[in-house]
Amino acid sequence: xxxxxxxxxxxxxxxxxxxxxxxxxxxxxxxxxxxxxxxxxxxxxxxxxxxxxxxxxxxxxxxxxxxxxxxxxxxxxxxxxxxxxxxxxxxxxxxxxxxxxxxxxxxxxxxxxxxxxxxxxxxxxxxxxxxxxxxxxxxxxxxxxxxxxxxxxxxxxxxxxxxxxxxxxxxxxxxxxxxxxxxxxxxxxxxxxxxxxxxxxxxxxxxxxxxxxxxxxxxxxxxxxxxxxxxxxxxxxxxxxxxxxxxxxxxxxxxxxxxxxxxxxxxxxxxxxxxxxxxxxxxxxxxxxxxxxxxxxxxxxxxxxxxxxxxxxxxxxxxxxxxxxxxxxxxxxxxxxxxxxxxxxxxxxxxxxxxxxxxxxxxxxxxxxxxxxxxxxxxxxxxxxxxxxxxxxxxxxxxxxxxxxxxxxxxxxxxxxxxxxxxxxxxxxxxxxxxxxxxxxxxxxxxxxxxxxxxxxxxxxxxxxxxxxxxxxxxxxxxxxxxxxxxxxxxxxxxxxxxxxxxxxxxxxxxxxxxxxxxxxxxxxxxxxxxxxxxxxxxxxxxxxxxxxxxxxxxxxxxxxxxxxxxxxxxxxxxxxxxxxxxxxxxxxxxxxxxxx
Length: 597
Ligand SMILES: [Zn+2]
Prior knowledge:
single chain; alpha+beta; seven-stranded antiparallel beta sheet; globular
């Protein structure tokens, strides 16, 4: 078995992780189902883009021969905004999905780009946003492709950035939601995400200049708001900021600062930021940031679905959330941090139409009341085409974690894992049709004693576990681990019953009757093709949902058991992921006041 250290967790990391994610060891595979299909599709799509096209703009700018042709949309002049993320995603998916040709492609792109760097170290990228993402990819390749020589390249461009980047670091104010920094003609820099990847460069073995440079970009103005939680019943007082995604992504810099310094202050900030987003910013899908703003805690989130179509920047948003929750799982070992991951796996990144070879890219999800549609972004190859492959490459890293005493299972997806436990290689195979089916079967490979921790989902209405057909006793607490410590025999089976059911999820506490419908972690959309929206008796909490809906035999398809108006039937429901682009559907409903028009 190959053991490769996890990106961002090299030997220099000061805090010892409680849980060690396993995806970047190369020994987790998602074996079938929609996530496996999404991974295969992403490999094909991104390997299908001609390297000469990707490098075309960089080569032209460096007065070199530039075979290939310009790309489209955000990449018309140069691929600068997303180049680093494409490279990073390819490097990662090569390992996490066992597709070495993807890692090879990332190395070829790094080599081609390195040849275009100016003699003074100017990386030839449009702005710091682009360079920070290229540094991410170079660090990924250093660790995952065993190419420590690439740290020399990181050192070179960091020295150039240290000399040339202004240090204004303006912060958002009531009259300037964005903060950010003017970094050149027409370019705004979301400077508060810079630190992360320079810290990761140091963690991967880079010189101290990387660490010192990263430390200049802490976003204390924002981070320090999360040093304490508000008292019970009090609102979070956090201003509205533009770039909700980057205002979550900045916490990956705080996470890196924690790994470099071991300062518990950063871990506190991460925990509280997580709780702030999940309790005040998130929709039922785990998405956040209407029109890319963070929302004050005053009912604005609930009102946000009344007009605009850009409800949540779902792809970049999923990526920032994956990184924050990965850091929290790793450093706290608490199961509850996987709840947000699971929402996004089924209803965020897992519910978008994949990036197309043409560059058509999912960006916003639309949860408007009345009618919503999925559409690709109006420009090809936007930011979300960069985070899409990073998100998909990261999926196998979210399923299993090694602990000193055994293995933790966070997601119930068809998959296999091998890991080292007390000097022995152990394995586990998971077979499941979840979420359409309600059970998952885990088969142990090899004999020996270890602890198996099974995540009890937040939404469960009846979680139970049987080993070799015998039901286990013990309390299953939602958002915690169900722990089995025993001597395992080769071939032992663990059957987990998850206890998913229909749920109604109010958008915020100001709008208790403005709800989305979910089955377990899966948000269901209603077909809006000449149908009436969902209406329910109030208070809806009194309704037996399982009696209010009929479920079809196949998949998660539900039909309300009432007929709607005389002219329009009530639309049926299915997972958000199953709606194709342009097909009219509804995510949120005013169930006490359904409006046809
Ligand atoms: Zn984006």
